[in-house]
Specification:
Pfam families: ABC_tran (PF00005). By secondary structure, the chain is α/β, with parallel strands linked by helices. It is built from 9 helices and 12 strands. It binds adenosine-5'-triphosphate.
C-alpha cells in the first residue's frame, strides 16, 4: 500500500471474521482529506463488514485504522464517535422519538457524561436537518417516517456528529432519484472525508472522487472511477459487459448488460417452437 502522510483515513491489513468465517482478508485503503471514496463490489463482497469496522460496530481480527493519523481502534467510544460517524445499512429501529431529538443525539459524542445538549448543539442539529432537506420533519415521530425520510434524518444525525470521517453504508437506499442526487451533491459539498458503499456504479462513476472495488473480501482495484470501471474489471468482478459513454463534455455515464442471460427456470412442457408446423403462416400483425 502507498502510504500517504496526508490521508485522513488509512486502513492497513484489515482482517475480519463473522461467526468465525473470514470475510475480510487484509484490506488496505486510504482516503485523502475531503475525498468521497466509493466502496463498490458485488453482493457479499464485504463492503458492509469493512464499513462496520470503521464505525466500530465490528472489531476486526487484525489490522489498523488510522483517522487523522490516530489509532481509531484504540479510542474510547466517545472519542471514536468524534472521528467517525455512520449511516449504517440497517439503521437501528428507533421509535417514540421526535426527529429533532434523534438528530440532537448525534451531539452526544461532544458532550460530557452528564451534560445535556445546549443551544449550539440544537442549532447544529437544525442545520444538519436543513442540509438533508428534512426540516419539515423535525416534529414527527421517527417511527412514522417513510424509508427515504428516515434515511435522510439518520444522515442528518451523522452530520450533527461533526466527524472527521463520514461512513455511509448504502445511503441511497430508499431515496427517490431526486433525493439520491441531492444526497450525493450534499455529501460532496460537505468537504468531509467520506467512505460510501454504493451499488449504483453509474452514480459512483459520476460522484465519487475515488473508488475501491472489493471482491471476496479483498481490494481488487482502486483509483479514479473512470480508470477503475473498465470493461475487463466490470466483466470479471460484476459479470457485466460495460462501457463508459460520454453524455456531455467531461461527463460519463455507464452502460451495462449481463455477460450472459440471467439464469431462469428450466423450460417445462413441449417446446412451443417445435410444435409449429413449418408450413404454418406467421400471424399477421
Ligand atoms: N453473521 C455472519 N456469519 C457468517 N457470514 C456472514 C455473516 N454476516 C454476513 N456474512 C457473510 O459475509 C460476507 C460479506 O457480507 P457483507 O454484508 O459485508 O457484504 P456486502 O458487500 O456489504 O454485501 P451486499 O452488497 O449484499 O450488502 C457475505 O458473504 C455474507 O454472506
Amino acid at each position: 500500500m502507498t502510504l500517504s502522510p496526508s490521508a485522513d483515513l488509512t486502513i492497513g491489513g484489515l482482517r475480519a471474521r463473522l461467526s468465525g468465517v473470514p470475510v475480510l482478508h487484509g484490506v488496505d485503503l486510504r482516503a485523502e482529506p475531503g475525498e468521497v471514496l466509493g466502496v463498490v463490489g458485488p453482493n457479499g463482497a464485504g463492503k458492509s463488514t469493512l464499513l462496520r469496522c470503521l464505525y466500530r460496530a465490528l472489531a476486526p481480527e487484525s489490522g489498523t485504522v488510522l483517522v487523522g493519523g490516530k489509532d481509531l481502534l484504540a479510542m474510547d467510544p466517545a472519542t471514536s464517535a468524534r472521528h467517525t460517524a455512520a449511516l449504517p445499512q440497517e439503521a437501528e429501529p428507533v421509535s417514540g422519538l421526535r426527529v429533532r431529538r434523534v438528530v440532537v443525539l448525534g451531539r452526544t459524542a461532544h458532550l460530557g457524561p452528564w451534560q445535556t445538549p445546549g443551544a449550539q448543539d440544537h442549532w447544529i442539529a437544525e442545520e444538519a436537518l436543513a442540509r438533508v432537506g428534512a426540516s419539515a420533519l423535525a416534529d414527527r415521530d421517527i417511527a412514522t417516517l417513510s424509508g427515504g425520510e428516515r434515511q435522510r434524518v439518520l444522515l442528518a444525525r451523522a452530520l450533527a456528529q461533526q466527524p472527521r470521517v463520514l461512513v455511509l453504508d448504502e445511503p441511497l437506499n430508499h431515496l427517490d432519484i431526486r433525493h439520491q442526487l441531492d444526497a450525493l451533491l450534499m455529501v460532496r459539498g460537505l468537504g468531509i472525508t467520506t467512505v460510501l458503499a454504493v451499488h449504483d456504479l453509474g452514480l459512483a462513476l459520476r460522484y465519487c472522487d475515488r473508488l475501491c472495488v472489493l471482491a471476496d473480501g479483498a481490494v481488487v482495484a482502486s483509483g479514479p472511477p473512470r480508470q477503475v470501471l473498465q470493461p475487463a474489471l466490470m466483466a470479471e468482478v460484476f459479470g457485466v459487459r460495460a462501457r463508459q459513454v460520454e453524455i456531455s463534455p467531461g461527463e460519463q455515464a455507464l452502460w451495462c448488460e449481463p455477460l450472459e442471460p440471467a439464469p431462469g427456470p428450466a423450460p417445462t412442457g413441449p417446446d412451443p417452437a417445435a410444435s409449429l408446423d413449418a408450413s404454418e403462416e406467421e400471424p399477421a400483425c
